[in-house]
Amino acid sequence: MSAVPAHVPADLVRPFDYHQDPDFLSDPHLAFERIRDQRVFFSPRYGGYWVLTRAEDIRLAFQQPDIFSSREFSIPTGIYPRVLRPLSLDPPDHGTYRQPLAPLFAPNSVARREKELRGVCADLVEGFAGDGKVDLVAGLARPFPTTVFVSILGLPVAEAPVFEQWNHDLLHAYDEPERRQQAAKNILSYLDDLVGRRMAEGPLAGEDLFSVLLKAKVSGRALTHDELLDYAFMLFIAGLDTVTASLGFSLHCLATRPDLQVQLASGQSLVSAAVEEFLRAYSIINTARVVTQDASFAGVEMRAGDRVLLSTPLAGRDPYEVDQADQIVLDRQVNRHLAFGAGPHRCLGSHLARLELRIALEELLRRVRAFRLQDGAEVVRHGGGALGIDQLPVCWQT
Ligand code: HEM
């Protein structure tokens, strides 16, 4: 069967693969810039999907779950071994499954974690600050969010390296399907045991994931073992790699822009604005929807069953929405980005993500001055559903 359905006009067909095209492997954000000339087009890859390139259209699609369903939220579909609730649900079921997590990620609960997170981050930075060089992904951007996740699960932080390896194998062993499957099995079996133990223990005094979820109800009943496992696995997918990638791109930008490092070091108050600006300019999530009913949208006729890519990197640098969209302006007055999505699925972990990003920049800039890419450094990036940076070798004077 052709991946281009009959209702798609031929002049809107444009082969485009944000997973594998070499452009996306070398610099995904730049690669997205090359497809802005069309407001919308249809790529025949992975069974075929529409690509919206304007922030306004992407935002509207996020906000209309009745037309754009999250039932299939990845291209290609079905890549995860568990149901990712609430990500893959539409209203009203979506709200039922989002609600139990809400207390864990509310602004006040997140703010209470600041001291602990700062300590974890400071330890990581102190571990390499005297060396004059480090791979900032391996040294900071990967271990920091992993340790935070381990702490949210209520586990000792010494467990973090195990999760780091599984995370890497599951999401980054691109050409090794067996390694990916093995990692998924390992994570699920670990989490399965943990859920069993925690259900037997019941809620503890703290604010870890299971203590919150074991007190929660869906439709008037307690959550089942399988539902708890689904939540833990979903957070593993949603909360680790995203922060690693956002932090990686922010640090890459700083490593190549000494002027921004000086600007940031001159006033701590700029760091929060900088976090927002990096989130906008280096948005990472390429999520997707499936069309539920025939609809005219963004000037084209979509049919029920069509799939649509909602790319937050495209939205973040849309010149129709953002002044100087391709520039980093740390003190932007208005910064209306879609890095965390919009509508009912807007990122539940956004307060935690912002806190992690702010702490990482503050703790690094406090201890490491004027870092830059190592001579001849290979900066490794990747495209796909979550863009990312795998390796960032930098150096500085000690
Ligand atoms: C900078 C880091 C992050 C970015 C850029 C990000 C981005 C996003 C985006 C774009 C969505 C919406 C996906 C869609 O509509 O299909 C989302 C959803 C979600 N994110 Fe994040 N995220 C980040 C960090 C986190 C963290 C740290 C957590 C929790 C530990 C988290 C938990 C979630 C959850 C639970 C959802 C699903 C919400 C729902 O379906 O209602 N995220 N995230």
Helix content: 40-55%
The number of helical runs is 18
Biggest sheet layout: 5 strands, mixed
Q: Would you count the extended β strands for me? A: 14
Give the overall silhouette. Answer: globular
- Parts with pLDDT < 50 across at least 5 consecutive residues: none
Q: Please identify the structural class as seen in this structure.
A: alpha+beta
What is the level-2 CATH architecture name?
A: Orthogonal Bundle
Description:
The chain has a single domain, classed as Cytochrome P450 (Cytochrome p450, Orthogonal Bundle), CATH 1.10.630. Helices cover 47% and strands 12% of the residues. The protein contains 18 helices and 14 strands. The strands form 5 sheets. The protein has a 5-stranded mixed sheet. The chain has a 3-stranded antiparallel sheet with strand order 4-14-11. Strands 5-6 form a two-stranded antiparallel sheet. β12 and β13 form a beta hairpin. α7 runs antiparallel to α9 and α7 packs parallel to α18. The longest helix has 25 residues. The termini are far apart. The mean pLDDT is 93.
